[in-house]
Design goal:
folate biosynthesis, EC 6.3.2.17, alpha/beta, 2 domains, 15 helices, dihydrofolate synthase activity, Dihydrofolate synthase/folylpolyglutamate synthase, Protein-Tyrosine Phosphatase, Chain A, UDP-N-acetylmuramoyl-L-alanine:D-glutamate ligase
Length: about 425
């Protein structure tokens, strides 16, 4: 099939539609094609790259690293995925999204340079981000790994540090169905000549084994550094370094991972600067407050580990006497039962919504999975996230909290609903 190639004057939407059409599959694991293009166009030699892998916490760790580097006057390029509302969210320079034309120019340059080599949507987007960074030349580049690590398109670069945030089961069909297998895939971003920082609190032995084989120096949570969280203080310890920090708006584990990464690289700012950064740091879609009256939060939790963190956040509101209402929408290939199991003791009333996106599941199917974990759940199904929000918000007392969760798509729909509502 012949596809009409957009031009430099085409819209970003035209280019994104084109990228979705040019490869026969959405996921095509392997680095051969991507590396060929990357080497040809000079992307593999980009300097000062930090690679960030992990089942959960990549986005928040990257945002923390970005803010801490920016606080010292460095310029920073950040690549993350997926986006919530706009594709532009995927690439940031100094914390800001870029205009459409910058993405179009990068897509055009890559299209001209890739020749006959076929690329998936994600691969094309990743290489286009590297094209942006090649043009903008930031002091440091933060690359968030998309899937796994070893065979992910981001892994064609040579990082100055490799980071693994957490290890849990997700994307089992690609990464394996044990933490050992998943850990080995994510450790594929390690390099012999660059430090590795692992924030997981129970590191699989496969990570240690691969690091030893490669000769990578690993700095590990609970072994080389530690952190403790109280109601009003985050304490961090790493050798002679002790920090007393405000409680962050993102998971403390990810903050500790980011701090350790910069400390290892000799790039950590002073304690006062870190405190200022953490006091103002928020990440979209991560227990994000959409409204205070009524009280509405949104969280992208979509696997067991992220659901357990969500449960811990909800528990603090339960302790204050809040009734918790959940509106959930999930993808078909997620471990829905495990997610429901992780939060079931924190939810008083359930609302389940259809997701109409690719791989989106029906509310009827979610209800079946919920019944297997919760005995006689108080549950209502809805045609969409928007209709679910309309229904819940119409009769929501002040002593209730609504949490919208289950997928990036679910949260995106909730944010869009709120923006339209305003």
């Amino acid at each position: 099939m012949t596809h009409v190639v957009p031009s430099q004057s085409s819209s970003l939407d035209d280019w994104l539609c084109y990228l979705e059409s040019i490869h026969p599959s959405n996921i095509d694991m392997g680095l051969t094609r991507v590396r060929q293009v990357g080497e040809k166009l000079g992307y593999t030699a980009l300097p000062n790259v930090i690679l960030i892998a992990g089942t959960n916490g990549k986005g928040t760790t990257a945002r923390c690293l970005e803010a801490l580097l920016l606080s010292q006057g460095y310029s920073v390029g950040t690549y993350a995925s997926p986006h919530l509302i706009r594709y532009n969210e995927r690439v940031r320079i100094n914390g800001s999204e870029l205009p459409d034309q910058d993405h179009v120019a990068a897509f055009h340059a890559l299209e001209q340079g890739r020749g006959e080599i076929s690329l998936t949507y994600f691969e094309f987007g990743t290489l286009a981000a590297l094209e942006v960074f090649k043009q903008k030349q930031p002091d440091y580049i933060l690359l968030e790994v998309g899937l796994g690590g070893r065979l992910d398109a981001t892994n064609i670069v040579e990082p100055i540090a490799s980071v693994i945030t957490t290890i849990d089961l997700d994307h089992k069909e690609y990464l394996g169905d044990t933490r050992e297998l998943v850990g080995r895939e994510k450790a594929g971003i390690f390099r012999a000549n660059a430090p590795a920082i692992v924030g997981d609190l129970a590191i699989p032995s496969s990570i240690w084994q691969y690091a030893e084989e490669l000769g990578t120096q690993v700095t590990a949570a609970q072994k080389d550094y530690s952190f403790a969280l109280t109601a009003d203080l985050l304490t961090y310890q790493n050798g002679d370094l002790t920090l007393s920090l405000p409680v962050p708006n993102i998971p403390a584990q990810n903050v500790a991972t980011a701090i350790t990464t910069l400390y290892t690289l000799g790039l950590l700012p002073n304690e006062n600067t870190i405190c200022d950064v953490l006091a103002n740091l928020t990440v979209e879609g991560r227990f994000q407050c959409l409204s205070e009256q009524p009280l509405v939060y949104a969280d992208v939790a979509h696997n067991p580990e992220s659901a357990r963190y969500l449960a811990s956040k909800l528990a603090t509101f339960q302790a204050q006497g809040k009734t918790i209402i959940a509106l959930a929408g999930m993808l078909q290939d997620k471990d829905q039962k495990a997610v429901f199991n992780a939060v079931k003791s924190n939810i008083d009333q359930w609302h389940l919504a259809n997701l109409t996106c690719f791989r989106g599941d029906k509310a009827d199917n979610l209800l079946q999975q919920l019944h297997s974990e919760v005995d006689k759940p108080n549950a209502t199904i809805h045609d969409s996230v928007a209709s679910g929000l309309q229904s819940v918000l119409a009769n929501m007392p002040e002593d209730q909290l609504l949490i919208v969760f289950g997928s990036f798509y679910t949260v995106a729909d909730a944010i869009a609903f709120w923006q339209n509502k305003e």
